[in-house]
Amino acid sequence: MTAGKTSIRGRRTLVIAAIVVVIAVVAAVGFVLTGTTLTGQTAPPKERLLRVSFANVPYMDPAVGSDEASSVYFLNVYDTLVYPNKDGTVRPHVAEKWEVSGDGMVWKFHLRKGVKFHSGRELKAEDVIFSLKRMITIGEGYGYLFKPYIDLERTVALDDYTVQITLTKPFGPFLITLVRLYIVDSELVKQHKTEGPYGEMGDYGKNWLMSGEQDAGSGPYKLFEHKRGESVTLVKYDGYWGDTAPNSPTKVIMYGFTEPTTIRTMMEKRQLEVTDQWQPLENYDAMAKIPGVKIAKVPSAMIFYIMLHTKKPPTDDVHVRRAITLAFDYETAINDIMPFEKRPSGPVPSMLPGADPARKPMERNVEAAKEELRKSKYWGKLDQYPIEFWWIAEVPWEERVALLFKLNMEEIGLKVNVVKVPWLSVVEGMTKMETTPNAVSIFVIAHYAEAGSILMSRYHSAATGTWEQGEWLMNPEIDKMIEDALATVDFNQRMQKYYEIQKKLDELAPSVFVYEHVVLRAYQADYVDYPAARGEVLPIAEYELDFRWFQVFPEKIPS
Question: Residue 95 needs a FRET pair 20 to 30 A away by CA distance; which of 46, 164, 471, 529 works?
């Protein structure tokens, strides 16, 4: 199952310029028509329509949603202070420049002047402060990224265009997390607040934003229509301050369904330009045969782990865990089960800054696995300690991974019981140490574009009791190493500390790293330029669907 944040996982303007150019020599009149009808009226511009499917319709409030569809909606409708680069750094966006104190505790951002919300009001520093406090207070979306670090009392607007954010403790990756701080029109939101649990702010405008009646953003697209449970339609915001691709979509429809037959039929009829990433492999194979359709293979910051419970016999023994990592057949898992996936080289997706480039994928070695078992305290009585393996009922192909695991482990003398478990039951079971199984297979995505994100959610003690850490590692040394790395302001020093954490995890062998996820999407290659399909990928989940950088060429649609 994929991470719910994803999971882990919008933009800019341009005046519509795709006018049909009709060049005709009219002998009787002797003039050329260029975008003009015979009555002298301007021909209507040709719409550049982009339709994309998702697993669900977005949540409309950037303080509430964090799933894939919601995050795509937010990044297209709302602006952020900074924008991500390919290397995991950021560049100026609404913030033109910034300074930070030597201890990394106080950040001062200077805002671009003339940024207009869709309401027509200028974006000011107070909107940034309001948005940050609102996100942390509501705490249902990406607020978790900021809550542990932001000193709200000392986070203020110094003037209309200067924001000062003060931290409670140093946080090295702070800048990159700001790509999730979506700035809302504070005056518009306050106008629509009703009774609620947030004191004088009532419901903080949550009910109004969630209704999909209107957005409160300043991004390159604005909300046009919301059909509850079905779709969200965006249109290009002509007042946008920033850049867009020359032929970026003028209208985008985000559908909230993934039914394979429906998706395939829509692609065949050119009623859909880009599919969701959740189609079965056979559907991708079928869609690849449709004329003009190609399958994009997009790397992601997501890994499919087999989590090994480090506090439950027999996987509480490090030698048993090392034996498991050595005995698993990684090549078969790729070649025979998920051929589009990539071999990971460790716990951190390779596209993230902080993934150790010197690492190599684990290779299967049955004899070495048996040797490790001989060192374990369970040697000679392994049959008394069967390993319980949970796979997610809603993801049928995971059963094949579980059965491969069982086959591989029984080859070295470990007994495995494979159990099909519904996702919600998995989540519930992993809240307690005693109900978490010996092994469970789950996808987890980085929350922000740095190794510290995945290391924190996967291996720090603070993450135990969540579905993101079935290992129950609770290792004080690992905790201290992660905390130290996150508190390191110097980028290069922080990267080196991430490398050391990964080496330490090798010694503990808490997980099997099965797949580094590659997102598959079918798209209409004849008339859509999809940047991620040609390798233009940012290491932040969902940013591959920043619609401002797509290009649509209606004139190339086959008749």
Answer: 529
